[in-house]
Amino acid sequence: MSYDLRFVAPERREEVCRRIQTIERFIATPGRKSAEKAAEELGIRPAQFYNLVRAWREVRRPERLAGSVTRRQRNLAISDEQAKGMDRVIANDPRADPSDIVHAIMKHGLGPDVTLPRQEVVARYVARARPPLLPLAIKNQCEMMIDHTVLDVPVVSGSALMRPLATMIIDTSLDAIVGLSLTLRHPDAAGAAAALLDTLRHSHGTERPGRAPRILRTTDGDGDWNGLDHCLLRASFEIDVKAITPRGGGKAISALLGQQVCGIFLRPWLARAPLAKREALPDRSPQPMTLKEATQYIRDLVVSHRTTSHFAHLDGIARRLLDQDLERLSKS
Q1: 252/172 Cα distance (integer angstroms)
Q2: Closest by CA position to 210, among listed 237, 188, 234
Q3: Taking the CB of the first residue and of the last residue of the chain, which one, N or C, has fewer CB atoms within 10 A?
Q4: How is the chain split among helix, strand and coil, in percent rounded to 5?
Q5: Section 224-236 average pLDDT
Q6: Closest Cα to residue 263, out of 151, 102, 123?
Q7: 142 CB-near residues (< 8 Å, 6+ apart)
Q8: What is the pTM of this model?
Q9: Rounded to a whole number, what is the largest CA-CA distance in the chain?
């Protein structure tokens, strides 16, 4: 079987193919012993192998597999005992907020005779090793969430290069990103409408009566959100609004993607920062691209192949009206 390796660094393609073949063998014959054997073949821990399997099952994109790009994460100076201790804490409550996991490790330690790493090292390890699951505090609040982060992708903006804002729609029942839009603005209703439109057009079209889902969004952002709220209420959605601090967004996205995806770092704290702070360096990977190219590139990386069913309460007419409203709002 051949794979699309266009977005994999040439020097990493052989290794990525080896990882895919190992994952496919495990999927064909799953089980704990099979996972341990596969992890040993790849020279990684079983927890890391399970993360590879989940990433491959999500979108079947080779560039989603760790080690597929030249730009590598910094090696963490930790021992096997420290890694095993942190893995135990993560396994005790994999749906805990990453910051809570870090706090628990720093507070309770890793056991007798095991030196505790610095907090920043612990935070980076947790971001890499924690499974891509939403914290229960988010999962229990809503069925869909609108969240924002800034991505280290250089996008051409006139004569400058800018990091784009990614607005993502998260289906909490799937623990997955199901829609996306990229803009060069701050979080606003137009970007959210575009992401919801992307989600709607890739969702199940089958009508199924049931309770309308709740959508969670944040209170801050540029412009007027009343038009989007009215549009969603007319489509029978419930809307919850969550107040956050200026640097408090992006937690749901980070819980699913970690600190980076395929060498692209997530910088949620820049979502509401002055736009001047989002200028991108020209020597960063990947190569500069247009906003349209970046949107397709990022969509292929992060949006799940599983489609949401949270528009199934809409009949054909209501679905078309929502599509028209979201398209209009996305261009406002």
Answers
A1: 9
A2: 237
A3: N
A4: 45, 15, 40
A5: 92
A6: 151
A7: 172, 213, 214, 215, 216, 240
A8: 0.75
A9: 66
